[in-house]
């Protein structure tokens, strides 16, 4: 675990136990795939944000544990579906569920996780929470479809790219923080501030993730380097590089995106580096983190709030 997990270590442990209990199914394959995905680990930043947001506002109940598990189930469902859509073979350093069991079981178990999360929401019985999370799930689905439409389109604008990462990634971070505020009975100003904090951390997280695809290594990343290029994803490093590069280099990137071809990955990486596209992307992530920290000023100072600031900084400095 990372240091900011330690602040809510007991809560985090209870969430992990709850996740295992809620994965129960009479159908063995559902449990097998569910456990395989959950036990792969990951940083669990989204459920952690629920716990920290609630505790930062002096919440003393238990519903934050259920909400953290719900957020993790929604996220895990998106991963299962993403890996099928992207035909990914590696996640968190292990074969993806679709590589192990096939596409159909992965999609269906993703559906199970979505529906289980909504069963848990109903049990909480808070209409504000239901509204936030149902809207969020819907927006994520729109973002996934939009990303699919944008694939192999070298003419995607920076604005179009930001819209996708806002929908596909950032909204779940935002929802995690907002539902923590809702169950703590926060006023509207605090609730919106925490939502903004989560949104900006989510944007920074995805920007760095997209940058790492052109500077990391598979062992550290836990996924194959160049996957984005192989899928024809026009991410910000490529969008900026095409704006700055000479025509010949621009054409190399355009053709790689259009064909979903990672065979010229090293050439593309060299162009990305030569044009300053990596710095440009990371600067955009820095601006998002600055906005996140500004929003966090509306939350009373505490070790929980300090841990949330640490998460924002971590989203910039990570290498996986």
TrEMBL record:
The chemistry this enzyme catalyses reads: 5 isopentenyl diphosphate + (2E,6E)-farnesyl diphosphate = all-trans-octaprenyl diphosphate + 5 diphosphate
- Top-rank taxon of the source lineage equals Bacteria
Could you state a single Gene Ontology molecular function term?
Answer: metal ion binding
> Which keywords belong to this entry?
Magnesium, Metal-binding, Transferase
| Classification via Pfam families | polyprenyl_synt (PF00348)
Uppermost EC category: transferase
User: EC annotation?
Assistant: 2.5.1.90
Q: Which PROSITE patterns match?
A: POLYPRENYL_SYNTHASE_1 (PS00723)
- Record-stated family: Belongs to the FPP/GGPP synthase family.
* Function in brief: Supplies octaprenyl diphosphate, the precursor for the side chain of the isoprenoid quinones ubiquinone and menaquinone.
Query: What is the protein name for this chain?
Result: Octaprenyl diphosphate synthase
């Amino acid at each position: 675990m990372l240091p900011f997990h330690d602040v809510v270590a007991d809560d985090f442990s209870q969430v992990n136990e709850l996740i295992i209990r809620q994965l129960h199914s009479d159908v063995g394959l559902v449990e097998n795939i569910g456990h395989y995905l959950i036990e792969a680990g990951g940083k669990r930043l989204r459920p952690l944000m629920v716990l920290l947001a609630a505790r930062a506002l002096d919440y003393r109940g238990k519903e934050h544990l259920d909400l953290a598990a719900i957020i993790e189930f929604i996220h895990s469902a998106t991963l299962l579906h993403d890996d099928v859509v992207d035909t990914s073979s590696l996640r968190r350093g292990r074969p993806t569920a679709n590589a192990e069991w096939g596409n159909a079981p992965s999609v269906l178990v993703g559906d199970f996780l979505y529906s289980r999360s909504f069963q848990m929401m109903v049990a909480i019985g808070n209409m504000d929470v239901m509204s936030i999370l149902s809207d969020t799930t819907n927006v994520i689905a729109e973002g996934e479809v939009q990303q699919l439409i944008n694939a192999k389109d070298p003419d995607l604008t920076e604005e179009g790219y930001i819209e996708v990462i806002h929908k596909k990634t950032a909204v779940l971070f935002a929802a995690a923080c907002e539902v923590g505020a809702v169950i703590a009975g926060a006023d509207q100003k605090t609730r919106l501030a925490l939502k903004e904090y989560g949104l900006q951390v989510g944007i920074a997280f995805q920007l760095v993730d997209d940058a790492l695809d052109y500077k990391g290594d598979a062992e550290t990343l836990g996924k194959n380097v160049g996957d984005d290029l192989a899928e024809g994803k026009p991410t910000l490093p490529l969008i900026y590089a095409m704006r700055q590069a000479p025509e010949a280099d621009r054409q190399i990137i355009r053709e790689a995106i259009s064909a979903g071809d990672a065979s010229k990955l090293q050439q593309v990486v060299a162009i990305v580096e030569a044009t300053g596209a990596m710095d440009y992307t990371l600067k955009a992530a820095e601006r998002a983190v600055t906005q996140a920290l500004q929003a966090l000023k509306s939350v009373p100072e505490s070790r929980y709030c300090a841990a949330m600031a640490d998460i924002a900084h971590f989203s910039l400095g990570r290498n996986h």
